[in-house]
Amino acid sequence: MDKKSIKIDLIHWLTELQDISVLKELQGLKEAQESSFELSAGKNKELDSRLGKYETGDMKFTSWEKVKEGVIIMGAIDIKQELRTLIEKENDLHVLEAIKTLLIKSSLDPVLKERLTSRALKAEEDIRTGSVYTREELEKKLDDRLGL
Predict the structure, then answer these.
(1) What angle do CA 10, 39, 58 make, to 5 degrees?
(2) Which stretches of the chain are DSSP H helices?
(3) Are the C-beta atoms of residues 102 and 116 closer than 8 Å to each other?
């Protein structure tokens, strides 16, 4: 019998099979076959080498917490570098003073930092939804408020 004939024969047999223990055994065989894999001689040699280093204590490991910490620190370093670059390019004294004030105030007052963040997020949402005044509407509102 060729491979195709064997497969067809097994398919017909399986569709008629009622014995749950045989079905479970076949399912186990299928799962074992799907999860098995072969390593090349080179991969086996490398694996043995690494296991040997692990067993003798020659291999150093880092915990997942330390790895995550390093990623967060690197993210902060990247942001700081980008800020340095942007600040170096900035020539507007008012913008530089605003950045300085923001950094000083935010490091001193967490409540202020939360309020500023909340206001900035609301402003971005207003811009996104179109809930903004035109220049003329703003000027009229200010004139009315100041009684001009």
Answers:
(1) 145
(2) 3-16, 20-35, 41-56, 64-89, 93-108, 110-129, 135-146
(3) yes
Tens-place pLDDT, residues 86-101: 889 888 888 888 888 8
Whether the predicted pLDDT of 46 surpasses 70 = yes
- Angle, helix 93-108 to helix 110-129, in steps of 10 degrees: 130
Question: What are the backbone angles phi and psi of residue 58, rounded to the nearest 5°?
Answer: -85, -5
Selection from 31, 30, 53, 49 nearest residue 39 by Cα = 49
Note the pTM of the prediction, 2 decimals. 0.29
Which distant-in-sequence residues (6+ apart) come within 8 Å of 90 by Cβ? 96, 99
Q: How far is CA 18 from CA 21, 26, 54, in A?
A: 9, 12, 49
**For tokens 């291999």, what's the residue?**
59
In the numeric block, the tokens 């800020």 are attached to 83
Count of CA atoms in the C-beta half-sphere (13 A) of 92? 5
Measured CA to CA, the distance from residue 104 to residue 90 in angstroms comes to: 19
